[in-house]
Write a structure and sequence with these properties.
Layout: H1 5-18, E1 49-53, H2 68-77, E2 82-84, E3 91-93, E4 101-102, E5 108-112, H3 127-139, H4 146-149, E6 152-159, E7 162-167, H5 174-177, E8 209-214, E9 218-223, E10 237-241, H6 245-253, E11 259-261, H7 266-279, E12 282-296, H8 306-315, H9 318-326, E13 330-332, H10 347-351, H11 357-366, E14 375-382, H12 386-402, E15 407-414, H13 416-423, E16 430-435, H14 447-450, E17 454-456, E18 460-463, H15 465-468, H16 476-487, H17 491-508, E19 511-523
Parallel strand pairs: 1-10, 1-11, 14-15
Antiparallel strand pairs: 2-3, 4-5, 5-7, 6-7, 8-9, 9-10, 11-19, 12-16, 12-19, 13-19, 17-18
Helix pairs in contact: 1-13, 8-11, 9-12, 16-17
Length: 545
């Protein structure tokens, strides 16, 4: 898979911003602030559901939306060819009528489509509408365009309700990729194919809701009365976007919201959990596929030395990070592939443990590190991320306390745009980063971390994903395994290849996995059906009031 460095930095930056929460010691991060009492600060009336969040929506154009919140909105405003059965990771047809028929060479996907779907403006859904929408997604040059443009050779309507897609090369996760929120039909007479031709403030699609209004602080979704599928369990969704976690927290506590979803800081989450029983609040906790890790730059000292990278892996204490930074509201992570997948292997736990300073000393000795020649480590992160500030300083304190005089840690920050611009230039020895997948498949946790298009064992990566994320890792073995697992359709064989890739990461240590986020939603009494899906989607149509 070719990888877009710009897209990668954009994704990393948005999630560092998303999870850069307030970590003040006082509960509520500003609990002394009172929620403003206004007519708008009330839970929605009737059967409409009010949802509060601090997430913003830059655009609702499916060809350009590449952030969490627009993705959630599009998932509820539009449909995709394939989706997941609620509460599971089982692929099922949505606008398609069955799973694709795949040619013997694994390149051609023939997809039969529903003939009873109408878009919000009355446009009949046909194969040509879907083909147009996919071509627009690829050709308009939006942030997620590479997801399809690097996979698809041609897309065409081979019947009124039959779509045929030909790939550039076999790709085992292609059906999963077709669940991405941007692969949704839009009417050809309302949207344009052309570089940069986007409609950020509107959306016309086929989903269970229609967009009623869209602004920087309020979004309203009305029920699509002509929806082809099951009607929503509510009469509409009113979304309020807050400028801070404190305002979201206080408004929910005061009864101004039915549902509070992202982002609250750990103290606020803990406080709402303590008060849940007395207030009849619901606490919905879900695992997450967001992985957080440290990228180690192999082109410059000190991480050009494998023993130093292994020593760093041994020094990391994930349980301490979880306690100090997250009040145990995260999960220690021991592979770049998250625990949500059966192929997950806790390889870093097995090889390095947590806070294994005795083992770290052995690796440091192999690298020639002594008290007279101590190791200096720099840990960088975006200045706006208070989460990573806590993590970096926790690492610094623990390492310097347990290896006094042997290892010195310097914590450094830069503004996000500057930092990510410098990462691919190889400026920083190590960076704290995170990654949110585009589609629910292990491929999306190995290709973006291990693939390199141009480079060698001597020069390391000169162009490719590993340059974009600052490790500059290059491995012929990794590239070979990546190509094989990407094309392998046999699940068991592919699982073996993915396990080999995880083992390769623990042997070469281009990254150190750190933690996996948890997702929290709070709902007041009388609200049912609130859940976070295994693929991290939030199905608003299931919420009942």
């Amino acid at each position: 898979m070719r990888f877009s460095k710009l897209s990668y930095r954009g994704k990393v930056a948005r999630f560092l911003g998303l999870f850069g929460l307030c970590f003040a010691l006082a509960v509520g991060c500003g609990q002394s602030q009172n929620a403003v009492s206004t007519p708008d600060n009330q839970a929605a009336e009737g059967g409409r559901v009010s949802v509060g969040t601090t997430l913003g929506a830059r655009t609702l154009d499916p060809a350009d939306a590449y952030e969490i919140f627009p993705g959630i909105l599009l998932y509820n405003l539009g449909d995709r060819l394939y989706t997941y059965a609620p509460g599971t990771t089982d692929l099922m047809p949505q606008l398609a009528t069955e799973l694709p028929t795949v040619s013997e060479d694994s390149l051609t996907y023939t997809i039969p489509l529903r003939d009873d779907v109408t878009l919000h403006d009355g446009t009949p859904f046909t194969a040509e509408v879907m083909a147009f929408s996919i071509r627009r997604f690829m050709e308009n040059g939006g942030r997620p365009a590479f997801l399809l443009s690097e996979k698809i050779d041609t897309v065409e309507a081979t019947g009124e309700h039959e779509l045929t897609i030909t790939l550039q090369q076999p790709f085992a996760a292609f059906t999963s990729l077709l669940t991405f929120w941007g692969v949704t039909p839009v009417p050809p007479d309302k949207y344009t194919v052309g570089e940069g031709q986007f409609k950020p403030n509107e959306f016309i699609g086929s989903g269970p809701y229609e967009l009623a209004s869209f602004s920087s602080d309020r979004i309203k979704l009305d029920v699509n009365e002509d929806y082809w599928g099951d009607a929503p369990d509510n009469e509409g969704i009113d979304i309020q976007i807050f400028t801070s976690p404190a305002n979201l927290y206080n408004t929910f506590r005061s009864g101004g919201l039915d549902v509070a979803y992202q982002t609250l800081d750990p103290d606020q989450i803990a406080a709402l959990e303590r008060e849940a029983d007395s207030n009849n609040w619901q606490v919905i906790e879900a695992g997450s596929t967001v992985v957080n890790y440290m990228s180690l730059n192999q082109k410059i000292e000190p991480f050009d030395d494998l023993n130093v990278r292994k020593a760093m892996a041994s020094m990391v204490d994930r349980n301490l990070i979880n306690q100090r930074a997250f009040q145990d509201q995260a999960e220690p992570l021991y592979s770049l592939v998250p625990k949500s997948f059966e192929v997950y292997e806790p390889v870093f736990e097995q090889a390095y443990g947590d806070g294994n300073y005795a083992q770290a000393k052995e690796y440091l000795a192999e690298a020639g590190i002594t008290e007279s020649n101590p190791l200096a480590i720099e840990i960088w992160y975006p200045s706006a991320s208070t989460t990573r500030s806590v993590v970096a300083n926790t690492l610094k304190e623990a390492i310097e306390t347990n290896l006094p005089g042997l290892v010195n840690v310097e914590v450094s920050t830069a503004e996000a745009a500057t930092l990510w611009g410098n990462v691919e230039k190889g400026v920083y020895p190590s960076v704290l980063s995170n990654w949110y997948p585009d589609y629910f498949d292990p491929d999306n946790f190995v290709q973006p971390f291990l693939s390199c298009e141009q480079g060698s064992a001597d020069t390391l990566c000169e162009q490719g994903a590993t340059q974009g994320n600052g490790s500059f890792y290059y491995s012929d073995t990794a590239n070979d395994l990546l190509a094989k697992q990407s094309a392998e359709l046999d699940a068991d064989t592919r699982a073996g290849l993915l396990k080999d890739l995880q083992q390769l990461v623990v042997e070469d240590v281009p990254y150190i996995p750190l933690w996996q986020n948890k997702d929290y939603v709070f709902a007041r009494d009388g609200i049912d059906g609130v859940a976070i899906e295994p693929n991290q989607q939030f199905l608003l149509w299931q919420i009942e009031k």
